[in-house]
Amino acid sequence: MQMAQKPSIPKGTRDFGPQETAERNYIFDTIRSVFRTFGYAQIETPAMENLSTLLGKYGEEGDKLLYRILNSGDAFAHVDPDKPLTPQVCEKGLRYDLTVPFARFVVQHQGELSFPFKRFQIQPVWRADRPQKGRYREFYQCDVDAIGSRSQLCELELVQIVDQVFERLGVRVLVKINNRKVLTGLAEICGFPDKVVDITVAIDKLDKIGLEAVREELIAKGLTPEAVSVLEPVLTLSGTTEAKLATMREVMSSSPTALKGLDELEELFGLIEAAGVGTPTELDLSLARGLNYYTGAIFEVKALDWQIGSICGGGRYDNLTGIFGLPDMSGVGVSFGADRIYDVLKGLDKFPKDLISATRLLFANMGADEVRYLLPLSGALRRAGVAAEIYPDAAKLKKQFDYADRKGIPFLSITGASEMEQGVVNIKNLSSGEQKSFAREDVGGILEFLA
Amino acid sequence: MQMAQKPSIPKGTRDFGPQETAERNYIFDTIRSVFRTFGYAQIETPAMENLSTLLGKYGEEGDKLLYRILNSGDAFAHVDPDKPLTPQVCEKGLRYDLTVPFARFVVQHQGELSFPFKRFQIQPVWRADRPQKGRYREFYQCDVDAIGSRSQLCELELVQIVDQVFERLGVRVLVKINNRKVLTGLAEICGFPDKVVDITVAIDKLDKIGLEAVREELIAKGLTPEAVSVLEPVLTLSGTTEAKLATMREVMSSSPTALKGLDELEELFGLIEAAGVGTPTELDLSLARGLNYYTGAIFEVKALDWQIGSICGGGRYDNLTGIFGLPDMSGVGVSFGADRIYDVLKGLDKFPKDLISATRLLFANMGADEVRYLLPLSGALRRAGVAAEIYPDAAKLKKQFDYADRKGIPFLSITGASEMEQGVVNIKNLSSGEQKSFAREDVGGILEFLA
Q: Residues of B with CB below 8 A from A64's CB?
């Protein structure tokens, strides 16, 4: 027997107790049920992927944040100290996101899939990031993607999914929409096609620092004053989405890329209106998430009543599967951030109250005979789908009450010798105080009282 | 851009496509819903545990099968080749089972839990085992445990849970039950208390090799002929459970340990009868799974109509949390083997037929105007919980039909210009051939037709 160890878990990871697990499942179940009504099917991929699948997909920083797994058998291996360690003893890594494994899955199983392939995936991912408030080394992602169609109906579906998920969760959100082609076009028309990122970052700061400071910043980044003047009508864009699109069409008429992006945006906003989506949507040119990656629409979802970063985001990509040998497969998807959505629901007190206590009824344990008397009834209730417990030990009633209280069990039955003699059970509604007596065989009546 | 790689996944791991994921979720959901009716609450623990939590808990062989994770930042570390590699660069490992993390969880969070603590946990585990048919390096375990009570009612609940799970899954099973204290007593009464494992293994072979060969084997293992003679009445045990228990009581009357075990068995079988459990149960002295670990009841579940190893098993343990500093915490639990249960359901063709196709209705895409005409209706159907898709592209009808066919979608709507003019939609039941026309706003009538 070893010495007792003080137990702990690795930094940046979490245990989830009954309450938190129930709340998290409520989020996952809601998201899943919405995904399903749109015809998306769930898949799962392994936690471990070959390092060759993962490396080079997330930039240099990402490569550093990959968790590497020691080859089995190499735990006591001797290595050559003059060569880098990893290639000698690691061939596998933990999944860093769900996107690259999805691309790998689509290419590997292309023969078995029917396209457009609409999939969702809810699994944990691991990143060796520095842990801090709200950032973990293990966290769940909930990704939904449609791959194999360029139709803007796919973009619409994602907006509808976001709308339905947050309607069901009772959270008001705003969907911000941009298009990578418009950003590319913007950089083209001012003559600095390689400054897409700088221009987008500058647009993002406009509200905070003002037009003059943005102008200075762009010039500091290498743009000419003339180039900045070309951008100005777009920087100061205002009015309705229609008005914004019209202004941009004029300003960027010389860029076929931008015009294509504007066509896409116009079609998408038209579809959103035609579908009667209740959630507000907004064209936001400063949106640039995952810029290298997206080729069309870009999405970001913000909670309206709770201060937190984006709670869902994504976009269209044209080249995701190319790296694994399947070119020209356009797809679009969004990822829901379960941890942030959890924080929003907690903050706004939007979780349903009765999530943990599956258990409706606790039968107090008054002794072995009483338990035997109650066994058929408790079995019948469970078969009817009602969660019922018999306290396992004939402990003091105080202790049994406490158990019901801490588990939030709403009904209690104290059935002793006299009830047994009469062939009845007593059941008390612990919140209203109402108490009723039932024939032990009256499962229907009891179910009604517990409902 | 990198070269295209031929994508693959690590040996012993698996991708699960839409069909398999739906089937596996059906198993998990069934198990989960039964656990809940007995008042068990779900928890989740991290995939990575500290190696100090895992090492030494699964024997020497288990230590070798642990997946170790390279410390972040150490991917390119230079190590001392004269010292073992792991302690220099690994502090974390992947969860090997759900039992040790559960024990760690109970000790770490004991202040927040109410005992008896009834928890279940459905998560993957990882073992660097040699992959072979039916054995994987990543697989799910579904564990249910009650900790903090010595009552045989906990054992009964597990038998009831097994009964309900397999009744709902439509699989006939046999629950074999043994008790570690009886095995210990058996070794005691013949004078070889350290030969528990050898004696149990020998009993297990009785059916195959016969009494004479078992006798020889026990003598080869070091037992005296006299000791074997003492065991003989137990080896040749037959008749009802009551008869077996009575015989053992006589033979082992000198062992308090055995008598305690026989009391427990008698109480448990009595409770099983009182509860009216439909699944057959059987006393089986050859049952010895996880012998070092269990201290009371031992369970194993076999499918009656499909040849495969145990599909569920477990038992009572008294010292699980002691290693983490919390002594005297008795618990009992079983683990359902999702992969084997999957194989049984596949083999017996017991999966429900309509698991994959969430989607009830496909709206064929006849063009942009038709799509806009259908958007409000498709949204209304989804809000009513019915999965409906609009094919994203105005592709050839043949292609759209194929999509419905491969996804097993049972209803198809082809709504073109003439239907739009009349304000109707046509819906066809693809299996019966019945076709009906509805006013576009008649959501109720359409829902009824799709039901």
A: 72-73, 75
